[in-house]
Each structure stands twice: as C-alpha cells, then as structure tokens.
Amino acid sequence: MLSEKKIEILAPAGSVEGMKAAFNAGADAVYMGGSRFGARAYADNPDEEDLKRAIDHAHIHNKKLYLTLNTLLKDSELEGEVYRFLSPYYREGLDGVLIQDFGLLSILKQSFPKLPVHASTQMTITGTEIVKWLEQQGMDRIVLSRELSLEEIKDIRQNTRMELEVFVQGALCYCYSGQCLMSSVIGGRSGNRGRCAQPCRLPYRAEGDREGHYLLSPKDICTLSDIPELVESGADSFKIEGRMKKPEYAALTAFLYRHYTDLYLEYGRDRFRVDGKDMERLMDLYNRGGFSHGYLYRNNGAEMIFTKRPNHMGVPAGTVTKKGDIRADTELKPGDVLEIRSKNGKEERQWTLGHSVPENGFFEPETGKKKEKNRKLIPGTTVFRMRNPSLIEELHERYMRQELKEKIYGTLRVMKDFPVILTLVWGDISVSLEGEKAEAAKNQPMSAGQLEKPILQTGSTPFVFEMLEVETDGECYVPNQQLKLLRRRGLKTLEAECLKKYMRVEEREVPLQEKAVTSAQRIPALHVMLTGPEMLRRGRILTEFRGIRRVYTELHEAVQENFQTVRLLKQEGKEIYFALPGILRKKDRQKLISYIQSASGFADGWLVCHMEAFLLVKSLIPEGNFVFDSSIYSMNRRSKIFLSDLGKVELTAPVELNYSELKKLGCSDMELVVYGHQQLMISAQCVKKTREGCTKRPEMLQLTDRQNKHFYVYNECEFCYNKIYNGLPTMLIDKKKELLELAPASVRIQFIMETDEEIRALLHSYESIYGDGLPEKNILKDFTRGHFARGIE
Fold it and tell me: Is 525-677+730-771 a CATH 2.60.120.620 domain?
C-alpha cells in the first residue's frame, strides 16, 4: 500500500544553518561536505567539531546526515589524510558517505566496514549493469544520473534491491556528472575536485550567430507534479540539489517535497494536486527562466535550456503601460527588488521598491541614475521581481528561527531527607539521576508547581517536556540552583544515551599493498585513435606508418563502413580496438550487442569510456581485452589496482595530473595521450537541436566564448549525445625527456578533425623524435600542454 511506503526527502546543506532549516522544514536527511574532499569546495562547509555536532543534531531528531566525499583523490590525500579526516565522523555515527573514487571505495571497505557507502552521481550511473556491479562492490545506495527517464528508473528498480536516489529539484549540469573537464581545462578549477567554475553558465557564440547565447545553461528541474510517477518508479530517496544556495531554499524545497509526497502516499492520485501558489513561491525564490521536468519524459530538448540568462530569472511582477508607469500584476511590498530588461534579457534597470503596491495598482519606476530617469520605457515590457523579502522573512521565521524539540516525559521525586530523583523518558530510553538531599522547609514548603518550574526550562536543549509529574511529601525545600543543575545533568545524560547507539569503535587503517611495476626508460608503443566517420575513412593513411601498433576506432562507425578500413589496417598487422559508446543507455543496449557481435571477428580489444558499456561487453566476452579511457578515472594507485583487477585491463593515464604527479602515480603500465583535442563534455543535450532542431546528421559545430577561445561540438546521433572538444589540441609529442622518464607502456595520438596533411605531419614528427632520434620539435603553432605542467588544485 502507498501509505506504508517511505520516501526519504534528502535536502542540501551548504552550512549547519542550512541543515537545521531543512530538518525544521521536514527533510529526513541532508547531504553536506566537510572541510575537505567534497564536490562543493566553496560552500560554507563546517569544521570538524561543527560537523560532529551536526551529526549529533541529526540523530537526536531521528534524521540522517550523509557526508560528501565525491571527488577524485590524489595519492597524497588518499594515503593517511582521508583516514584521519573521516575517523572522527565515523566514530560519531556518520550515516553514510557519497563517493566517486574507486580508490576511496577500497579504503572504506577495509578501514570503515560499518559505514554505508553511496555511489555518487559523479560515477555516471545510467543502467542496470553498473548498478548490479556496484552492489557487488559493496555499495549501499545508488545516486542515479539526472539524465535517466522514468522508464529507465523503473527498469533499474526491477533489477536490483539497492536503494535508489533520484534528483527531483535544482540545477542540471549540461554534462553527464563526472564526465566534465571544461572548468578544469579552461581555468584549472576541476569539477572532479569540487571546484567547478560553471563555464556552462557562460555565453557562447555558435557559427553563424552574431552574438553569444547561453547555449549550455539548462533550466533547473522541478518535479513536484511528477511525485506520483517518481514514487511508482521505485525511487527510495528524493534528492534536492542546492548546497550552494541559501538555507531558505533548502527549507522551502524540503517542506514542499515532504508535503506533496506525503499527500500522494496518503490519498493517491485522486487528491494529489500541486497548488499553483507553491510553484510561484519556488519561482520567486530561484528559477532559471522557469523550470523543466528534466529528462523524465524526454531525451533532451530546447525547452530544457534557457539561452537568455544563466542565473535567477525572477518572476513577472508588473507591466509597463502606455503612460510609462507600471501596473502591478501581483501585490508588491517594500523591499521587493524589481528589474526591467532589454529584449535580449540583459538588465536595463533595477531598483528596490520603497512602498506597497496592491495588485493592479500603478506605480512609477524608481532609480537614482539620471540617465535611467530619462530613458523611456517601452509599453508592454515586463517588470520582474528579483527578490521577495517578505517570502524570505516568512521562511526565516518559520524554519530558521525555530528549533526542533523532542517531546520527553519526566518524573521528579522530592522527599524530605532523601536525594531528589529526576527520571527522564524519551521513547525506549530512560535515565534516572540523583541530586542533593531535599531539606525540610524552614518556612513555606515548595509546591509541585515551584519544584517543576526550574525543571521545565529546557532552553536551547533539543528537548521539551510533554509531561512532568512531581511527587513530593509537601514538606521540602530545594534550592532552584540545585534543580537547574539536576535538569542540566539529566538532559545531557539523556542526550548521551540517545547518541550512544550511533557511536562506533574506530577501525584500523589498512596500508596500501602495491604490486611491483617496472619503470625502466623505453620507447613506448604507438597507438592511434580515429574518431568520426571522416577520420575512419582517412585511416588508410595509417598503413604508411609501420610504427603504429594499435588503432582505435568507433565501433558503430566501423560497422556502418562494413569494416573496410578495419580490414585494411588488420592486413598491415595493426591491432584493432573498438571504442565503445561514451554513454550507454537502455534504449541502445540491444543495438550495441548487435554491433559487438558483428565486430567480434575483427576485435583485438575494446576501448572503454563508460562502465555500463564495459560490463555489458564483459558479460558477452569474459576474456576480452580492454583499455579504460581516461574517463574511467585512475587518479591514484588504489584506483589503478582496483580497476586493473577487473580483468585483462589496461589503463589510460589521468589527464588532470601534472608531470610530477604522473611520475609518482607510475605510468609504466598505462597509456598516455600525447596529442589530441581533449574531450571536455559529453551531454545528453544537443546544441544543434537547441538552436535549430534535430537533423539526425552527425556534424561538427564551432562555439566561441567571450575570450574568443574556440570549442567544437560533435553531435553523435547514433547514441544521441553531444561531445564538446577543446579547440586547441593538447601536444606532448615533443616532450621526449619527460615521456621517457614516465616510461608509459604506450602513447596515444587522437585524431578527430585533422586533415590528411596534418595526420601525416604529426605521425612523421613522432617517428622522427622517437624512431630516428632527431631533436624534439613542436610542429604546431597553436596548442596547449593541458595539465602536464600546471595540474589542478
């Protein structure tokens, strides 16, 4: 029955204040970061003592707190630092951790075995294969990718008993979470390290456009009206995004999702209706050009993107009349911040209202700028309210100035010449404490009311008396100070007794057990990657170069070409590894199986960009050879060991580590990309579809940012996703000294948009440096070294 089903409302807590507001509003749990290793490094994250108190606060009120450790970790952090960071919270009874890093997973299972582990959405979890596999690895909960449809969620639910967490409210990343390097490459602030600078919220000019638009900026999702479908999909936890937003946002969203979820669970669809006023309140607080339902019912679409503005849009509050004044479309109050915009959505005039205006009332725009006073307003222009102080004040009063209180029962026994006894009962927990002996009253004995008054003053504690019984012989006097001291001791003891069941004994740290890997200098094997149908046709050029041992090509492109180029390359003795889709979804599963079966006779191995695809191929070809691309992260030695143990697996060196860090990591058993346009994003959205509709034709589109830097968007129609590439290629071919010191097992040159002449020139350059021993020479004018020199924070 619906009424017996329990749905967790999981709210964001960017601060302790935000946590309390969310709990006060009805959230069952919050997720928040500590001082390190979380995906929101710039939130107001608590220090160790504050976080321990926050965990206790959650437990006292029968709530949960999950800690975000969902970043990629370097060896220097993973060995020792993570253990010391997490230990105090583990002992305090932390309810779970969200993680992205496989190396961290191995530490948690060894050193913190009783700690529930949640697979973060940063793991790009899109299907049943990876969910079942993560369950085998010891995960307790899965945070599904935001891009999944209701049908995909249902399919996963039917194939696993794992707890499933789905995003229901808040911001959407343009890229599949965990696959974005755009902020990292542009400015060194890695999303995989919790420092995303949100370049997707910046304007980009597409080819043929005269000005930039916010082509990569999705609207926030709001699924209040979809709660029945989400409950029926089998989701266990409704997650609200927004740790960078203010506490009032956490409070309002937690309240609304708790209220409407309970409404549906109790009464079903017949009485389930979302009040339009509640939607208005959400819009008033924060929206990016309205809300969307996310990907629940569609793969992508222009309706999900707001190209005019990347931040709060406000709500319509008035309209400019023919007389030049403004008619209020809703009641306005002093302090409301109003804004008038130009046709392209840019702010033209903003002011704070100094007086009340009734709905349909008229008022003049206020501004202190002379040039704005003289600027004529266009009739029909919409005036937006950007800030609603009365709504914010209401939320503060209701959820942020109140403290949650747990109701307790107590008895106070006061008898002459006997110790005063205070017994407190909360649920199944009972504590009794003795105070000083009660004295015989010299004058007027204390009444029951006088005795209970100091006890009832629970103040800032998490408790309030529902009932306090006083037993007295009517002959006693007890100083108020003694009663207050007894009350403080009693409430503190009751709280400690409650928290005791959550406390854990510290486990021991398990040191890293490394496998011996040789790292003598050598000339690495040369591998070449061809991406795109045009590149595959140019693959015959590779037959001119005997030094190429292996060629990677997109699986579906080879199938569509009927393996003509593949046959030619194999005749020349080249290994052929087929690149699997960058993202695998349920709708493409059978198609991929068909492609794998067609290609199995040509395949020497498979290049893996997404774990869902790897697990599918592994189930079909258990003894297959695999290369994990850099999107399967091996940022530290523990991750390397974890991934290498999955079968006949080779790894690609992380692109976010610098030379020194790569040297410490050890590359002698890895492949290093030495040339190519770095993939920065893979997105379920389609820039071309957003601009002009779907053509179902794969093609390359150029975007240009405000700094006149170029990026290339490739719409991969076969699996319906976009890939965004850096406009400048990463060039390391001429770094011979460093490459020989790193001694990778192989190096990779990646081609995606190069001409025949450029392909030949780059391969000749490699041969001359590493084959003929000629001096290093960079043949490119425009290039980047990527993170090879600078790295990331």
Answer: no
Beta strands in 623-775 (DSSP E): 625-628, 648-652, 670-676, 679-683, 700-704, 710-716, 721-726, 730-731, 746-751
Work out the average pLDDT over 663-677: 96
- Look up the pTM and report it: 0.94
Residue type, 483: L
Q: What ranges make up the beta strands (E) of 612-709?
A: 625-628, 648-652, 670-676, 679-683, 700-704
Tens-place pLDDT, residues 416-472: 999 999 999 999 999 999 999 999 998 899 999 999 999 999 999 999 999 999 999
Cα separation, 705 vs 700, in Å, equals 17
Between 348 and 420, the higher pLDDT residue: 420
More confident residue, 346 or 695: 695
Joined together, the tokens standing for residue 623 give 């003894």
Rounded distance between C-alpha atoms, residue 607 and residue 552, angstroms: 7
Indicate the residue type of 99: I
User: Do 315-400 and 2-172+218-295 have the same topology in CATH?
Assistant: no
Which residue's entry shows tokens 């050009």?
Answer: 289
Report the 3 state secondary structure along 62-102: CCEEEEEECCCCCHHHHCCHHHHHHHHHHHHCCCEEEECCH
Q: Which CATH superfamily is domain 2-172+218-295 in?
A: Aldolase class I (3.20.20.70)
Instruction: Report the chain's mean pLDDT, rounded to a whole number.
Output: 93
DSSP H helices in 419-479: 448-456
Question: Rounded to 10 degrees, what is the CA torsion of 665, 668, 671, 677?
Answer: 60
- Contact between residue 34 and residue 48 where contact means Cβ atoms under 8 Å apart: yes
Helices marked H in 633-685 = 637-644, 659-665
Place of tokens 């996703």: 721
* Those residues with Cβ within 8 angstroms of residue 769's Cβ, 6 or more apart along the chain or in another chain: 733, 734, 736, 775, 776, 777
* The two structure tokens encoding residue 734: 């001429």
Q: How far apart are CA 365 and CA 648, in angstroms?
A: 70
d(CA 726, CA 267): 52
Q: How far apart are CA 21 and CA 238, in angstroms?
A: 17
CATH topology for the 315-400 domain: Elongation Factor Tu (Ef-tu); domain 3 (2.40.30)
Backbone angles phi, psi at 306, to 5 degrees: -115, 105
Confidence band, pLDDT 50/70/90 cuts, at residue 371: very low
pLDDT at 518: 57
What whole-number distance in Å separates Cα of residue 762 and Cα of residue 758?
6
Residue with structure tokens 């959400």?
282
Give just the sign of the alpha carbon dihedral 244, 250, 256, 258: positive
Distance of CA 725 to the CA centre of its chain: 22
